Amino acid sequence: MDVRDNLSKKRLLSNTFVDKVRNQMEIDEEEYRELIEILTNLSDELKSQKVIDKELAMTLYSMPQIIRNVFQTYEEHNGKATEFGNKLEDIWIDLDAMVLECFIDTSS
Hints:
The chain has helices at about 5-15, 15-25, 30-45, 55-80, 85-105. The radius of gyration is 15 Å and the shape is elongated. With about 110 residues, it is an all-alpha fold. Helix 1 packs antiparallel against helix 3 and helix 4 (about 55-80) runs antiparallel to helix 5. The longest helix is centred in the middle third of the chain and has 25 residues, at about 55-80. The chain has one domain (about 5-105).
């Protein structure tokens, strides 16, 4: 992992978007925009990498899953579609796609 990846990893680990959704049921738009930027950068940086740091891989893998779990729990308790629920679902799908882009090797 090079220096750029290390910086991106630090930015990813310090981003509070997923924690705010999980713990406070709050969608922080600013943190979400920053998360999207970080994931876009990581995707570009990791394209030629054959090995990904374990902590980074675990964090990337778990983010969409956490949002998915919050979405499903919210839907179960609410019982109907709401703007918040719809937004959670969209975020979950977007994060899942962006994380997959981080794991795709396009160097071959």
